[in-house]
Amino acid sequence: MEFFDAHSIFFRVLGYNMSYLEFFAVITGIISVVLSAKASVWSWPAGIVNVFLSAFLYYQSQLYPDMFLMVFFFVTNILGWWRWTNPKPGEEDKNKELSISFMPLRQFLMLLVIGIAGTIMMGMLASRLHNWLPLLFNLPSAYPFIDSFIFVMSVITTFLMIQKRIECWIIWLIIDVVATYLYFLKGIKFMGVEYLVFTIIAAFALWHWIREYRSYTKTA
Fold it and tell me: What gap in Å lies between CA 43 and CA 29, rounded to an integer?
């Protein structure tokens, strides 16, 4: 279908050819992240639409780790939707949804070490996909290690977000900065602008979630 072709032009802006696929992937992504920043449960269904569109875009851009990441995000969006709306006794906030919390520092640092190790392993794998599966991946992975960093850390951070851990936004800030650089480098400029916006939203979300967490004490 024309809509799912990354080379099918929707419109041109400042000399840049905007495809239908890239435009709507970016718009749904921004909606999802804005809702997440506000700790809204509706961020999860919006995210499901976003990952579906983004998977097609990443495949056609030879960003294979990002494509695989969208499959993971599809599953975790469903899990997150369920987790936020079904908190265990004592975990509820004022809206009867899962409350925001911090995680132990030692556990957070351990996750960062795992993320670095995972990035190296995933990068080595991604750089060889076109050799191992030439019929499926006829072009080599573009920037496999940078792309793998985004993949691995996004996996870790998504699980933190499902549990509404404040630290997820610290890692999202780092991921968004790296992703902004990568997508401009690869020429997916509107996606790069999207992640620049995500960086700003992540900073706001970190502040908002901390404020929300502190409000629990005041309420109590």
Answer: 9
Q: Which helix (H) or strand (E) holds 68?
A: helix 64-85
> How many domains does the structure of the chain reveal?
1
Residue 39 lies in a domain: yes
Calpha distance 15→177 (Å, rounded):
24
Residue 46 belongs to domain spanning = 2-85+104-219
Task: Output the pTM of the full model.
Answer: 0.78
Token digits of residue 192: 């790069």
Residue 74 lies in a domain: yes
Q: What is the mean pLDDT of residues 112-123?
A: 93
Residue 3 DSSP code: G
Q: What is the DSSP string of 157-201?
A: HHHHHHTTBTTHHHHHHHHHHHHHHHHHHHT-HHHHHHHHHHHHH
